[in-house]
Structures are given as structure tokens and as C-alpha cells.
Write a structure and sequence with these properties.
Number of domains: 2
Largest sheet: 4 strands, mixed
CATH class of the largest domain: Alpha Beta
Strand content: 5-15%
Structural class: mainly alpha
Order of helices and strands: EHEEEHHHHHHH
Radius of gyration: 19 Å
CATH topology of the largest domain: Glutaredoxin
Shape: globular
Bound molecules: glutathione
Number of helices: 8
Distance between the termini: 16 Å
Length: about 240
């Protein structure tokens, strides 16, 4: 299997955590893909384009061993879980499942909205849509407060919702490294403040092997656009070989 993703390992990747927990780590080839570098200047017109396998040209995108693309992190996590060779990350239907899926949805939304904020600040500051920041921050805080209450009650397992929590929360920290100083609402945001139970849960959870596998680790494979394009060609050939 090949996973096309952006290997910024200063935050936790939900899909990598799920792959590891489900026993797929050793058979997963990770392909560095930077969609935001596409068409940014004369030298990189055709760089990391993966639209031949994902019409949205977005990461993460998985390609199975038979060449079938599975894209969107939610679809990928479900695929990895359904084909698990180890544990399962989605609880059986019942209250635990609905709780896991709700945390998954909450944290995917926080992550994607934070990406939106980051993209907004790529523009000159006098063109920022301030409403975006004032609209989103109260939602982030309410969401994190609900996770604090969950952490106070405690969880007896680690599910896909927890993987998404690590992803979103660690990205808030990563974002701080290059963006926090400019944030118009929270110039010094610290998600840990007032959330001791969530902070303690986070500090324990990041010690799992599935997180340590990549979090704050260097990406040592070839991250060139050529390597990405070679991987795309392999996937297309594989799909053709399987008559798809
Ligand atoms: N809902 C998707 C969102 C994926 C997404 O938006 N990925 C961003 C990077 S974080 C991307 O590839 N953006 C490139 C683009 O929008 O062209 C998921 O969870 O996988």
C-alpha cells in the first residue's frame, strides 16, 4: 500500500497512527506529497500533482495493493481498520462507537479549520477575513473543553477518535511554531491552559508506539516531486494490471 501525505512530523497524523495500530505499518510505503507546492512558481508547475489518483488532488490519499485509490482521511482510516491485521480502532455499534465517531468528527473539524486559518494568514494581514478567526475560536475552545470533561471521566481504550484528538491537538501546537504570533484572537494560545486532564491524557497517549513511529521523527525517504510522480505512475500501472 502507498500513502501519499505531507510528512510534517511535528504533529501527529491520525492515518499513520491507525495504520500502525492496525498492524499495517511495515507494509505501508509513505510518499511525500506537498499539494500546496503545486503551481507555485515557474519551477514547480507539475510538482506533486496526484490528481490522477485523487480528483481533489489532496492528501492523504491511499492506494491499496490492487491499485485502488481510497481518499479522505476518514475513508482511509475505515479501510485500514476493516483490513486490520491487529487491533480494531472502531468500537462495535453502541455508545462507545458513537462517542468515538463524534470525537473523530469534532477533531477533524478542528484540524481542517485550523488549516483554513493558516491559509488565511498566507495573505497580507490587511486582507484577512477576521470573521473567520472570531467565528472559529469559540468553537475550538468549546470542543477542547468537552474533551477535557471526557478526559476527566477517562477512557478505557484507544480508538479512532483518540487518534483524531492527537492529530488536531498536536497541530494546534505545531501551528504555534510558525503562526501563533500573528493570530489576531489568541497571540499566545496554549490549549493546555485550564485543561489538566486533557494535557495528562495527551502526554501519555503520545508515548504509544503508533505515535512514536513518526511524531517528531525525521522523514528519511525521498521527498522529491520526481519520487512522488514515480509512485503515482506505479499506482496507475497497478490499477491497470488489476483491470480497474
Ligand atoms: N477531509 C479531508 C481533507 C484533506 C485536506 O484538506 N488536505 C489538505 C492538506 S491538510 C490538502 O491536501 N489540500 C490541498 C488542496 O486543497 O488543494 C481529509 O480529512 O482527508
Amino acid at each position: 500500500m502507498k500513502l501519499f501525505y505531507s510528512p510534517f512530523h511535528t504533529f501527529v497524523h491520525k492515518v499513520l497512527v491507525t495504520a500502525h495500530e492496525c498492524g499495517h505499518w511495515e507494509r505501508l510505503t509513505r510518499v511525500a506529497t506537498f499539494p500546496f507546492k503545486n503551481n507555485q512558481g515557474e519551477d514547480c508547475g507539475d510538482t506533486y500533482d496526484i490528481s490522477a489518483i485523487n480528483p481533489l488532488d489532496k492528501v492523504p490519499t491511499l492506494v491499496t495493493d490492487t491499485g485502488q485509490p481510497v481518499f479522505g482521511s476518514q475513508a482511509i482510516c475505515e479501510y485500514l481498520d476493516a483490513t486490520s491485521r491487529a487491533r480494531r480502532m472502531y468500537p462495535a455499534p453502541g455508545p462507545k462507537r458513537w462517542d468515538a465517531l463524534s470525537r473523530l468528527s469534532l477533531c477533524d473539524t478542528i484540524f481542517e479549520s485550523t488549516v483554513q486559518m493558516v491559509m488565511e494568514q498566507w495573505k497580507p494581514q490587511d486582507q484577512w477575513n477576521m470573521g473567520l478567526f472570531t467565528w472559529l475560536w469559540p468553537k475550538f475552545n468549546a470542543g477542547l473543553d468537552s474533551l477535557e470533561r471526557g478526559a476527566e471521566r477517562g477512557w478505557d481504550d484507544f480508538d479512532v477518535g483518540h487518534a483524531s484528538m492527537l492529530h488536531a491537538i498536536s497541530y494546534l501546537g505545531f501551528r504555534a511554531e510558525f503562526y501563533e504570533a500573528k493570530d489576531p484572537v489568541y497571540p499566545h494560545y496554549n490549549w493546555r491552559e485550564g485543561r489538566p486532564a486533557l494535557a495528562a491524557w495527551f502526554d501519555t497517549a503520545i508515548q504509544r508506539p503508533s505515535v512514536a513511529s513518526h511524531y517528531n521523527q525525521p522523514f528519511t525517504s525521498d521527498s522529491s516531486a520526481e519520487a512522488c510522480q514515480a509512485a503515482v505512475r506505479e499506482c496507475i500501472a497497478l490499477r491497470a494490471a488489476h483491470g480497474q
